[in-house]
């Protein structure tokens, strides 16, 4: 029984507060041109809106009295959704790309890894540089740390070290993130 009540409460909260759903004793009304009309009872404000063929939409319930606007709700909803889509387009979800190598890497192979990392960083992704060891190679972890420091120095113009080179089991890992452009 209680669960059913909670769900119905949630549904009513999700619905937009327009026209008859506005349950405040007094509301501040703004017309479709942005001019303040004054403080009205919701019923009077709804009548004012219906005369113009528009809706009364609650814009801000935080202020005292709550602010309502007279506008076309369909158009308002469309513009809100359009803004949300635009904001989502501009948003870039950065992911972590990994560049793996061994501590005994040749110069050309190293340059290829640097180019890969720079492409990832320029596209806004973070780069996890990993150097793996096999067998007794783990004794040379200082060489791997030096190699990762060299990599960070080579990418200093486009990247900043987020996590310094550190041992993680049979690997040495460093995390680079793209530099923020101001």
Structural account:
By secondary structure, the protein is α/β, with parallel strands linked by helices. It has 2 domains: 17-77, Translation initiation factor 3 (IF-3), N-terminal domain (Ubiquitin-like (UB roll), Roll), CATH 3.10.20; 96-178, Translation Initiation Factor IF3. 39% of the residues lie in helices and 29% in strands. The strands form 2 sheets. The protein has a 4-stranded mixed β-sheet. The longest helix is centred in the middle third of the chain and has 18 residues, at 73-90. The model is unreliable at 1-6 (pLDDT under 50). Its main location: plastid. Belongs to the IF-3 family. Monomer. IF-3 binds to the 30S ribosomal subunit and shifts the equilibrium between 70S ribosomes and their 50S and 30S subunits in favor of the free subunits, thus enhancing the availability of 30S subunits on which protein synthesis initiation begins. InterPro entries: T_IF-3_C_sf (IPR036788), T_IF-3_N_sf (IPR036787), Translation_initiation_fac3_CS (IPR019813), Translation_initiation_fac_3 (IPR001288), Translation_initiation_fac_3_C (IPR019815), Translation_initiation_fac_3_N (IPR019814).
């Amino acid at each position: 029984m209680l669960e059913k009540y909670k769900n119905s409460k949630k549904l009513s909260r999700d619905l937009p507060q327009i026209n008859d759903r506005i349950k405040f004793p007094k509301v501040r009304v703004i017309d479709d041109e942005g001019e303040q009309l004054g403080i009205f009872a919701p019923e009077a404000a709804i009548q004012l809106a219906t005369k113009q063929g528009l809706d009364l939409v609650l814009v801000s319930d935080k202020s005292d009295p709550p602010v309502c606007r007279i506008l076309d709700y369909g158009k308002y909803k469309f513009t809100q959704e359009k803004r949300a889509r635009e904001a989502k387009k501009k948003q870039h979800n950065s992911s972590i790309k990994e560049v793996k190598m061994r501590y005994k890497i040749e110069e050309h192979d190293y340059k290829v890894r640097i180019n890969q990392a720079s492409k990832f960083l320029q596209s806004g992704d973070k780069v996890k540089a990993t150097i793996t060891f096999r067998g007794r190679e783990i004794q040379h972890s200082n060489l791997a740390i030096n190699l990762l420091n060299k990599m960070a120095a080579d990418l200093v113009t486009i990247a900043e070290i987020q996590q310094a080179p550190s041992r993680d089991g049979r690997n040495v890992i460093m995390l680079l993130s793209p530099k923020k452009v101001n």
